[in-house]
Amino acid sequence: MIEIVIAEDQTMLRDALATLLSLESDIAVAGTAATGREALDLVRRHTPAVLVNDIEMPGLTGLELAAQLRRDGARTRVLIVTTFDRPGYLRRALEAGVSGYLLKDTPSAELAEAVRRVAAGERVIAPGLAEQAWSEADPLTDTERRLLRLAEAGMDSPAIAEAEGLARGTVRNYLHSAISKLGAANRIEAARLARERGWL
């Protein structure tokens, strides 16, 4: 029996995934989570074979969650199921150590088979995305990406500095660096460009 945990912040989709995968005779759902933190707790508690999770979730993103599990040395393998079909997201997912990356329009039979293949140690990537993943390198550092997300959410430099425990000048330097790398006019445009390319 392949034990899995499902992490998805949209209740209807989370329930649908759990119901569909529970119908498979060789897959058992150990638990479901609405946030990245809840998913991390469930994985640490149950040590499932596979974590099926989205990228955008409250608390920890799916990519941050995958990276944390890798740092933990967890045996659980990660299968991302997302709407993000941009190669930048796939590249970051692979760098975070995920074993699978599928889109949410994948048929349920293919999803179940992907769970089996990931549990068996294989890598499963959505058709058409793999060859694009390395076409354009992500120029942003983790800190630049984090600060751009806060700027995108409407926070100004003083608020970002307070939230991150950084000096205001340091925040300005990081944001200026990100803006320059992306060839943007300002932080909001930089965040938009980064998100469009799958780097945010």
UniProtKB/TrEMBL annotation:
PROSITE patterns: HTH_LUXR_2 (PS50043), RESPONSE_REGULATORY (PS50110). Residues 133-198 form the HTH luxR-type domain. SUPFAM superfamilies: C-terminal effector domain of the bipartite response regulators, CheY-like. Transmembrane segments: none annotated. Keywords: DNA-binding, Phosphoprotein. Residues 3-119 form the Response regulatory domain. One of its GO terms (biological process) is regulation of DNA-templated transcription. This is DNA-binding response regulator. The lineage of its organism: Bacteria, Pseudomonadati, Pseudomonadota, Alphaproteobacteria, Maricaulales.
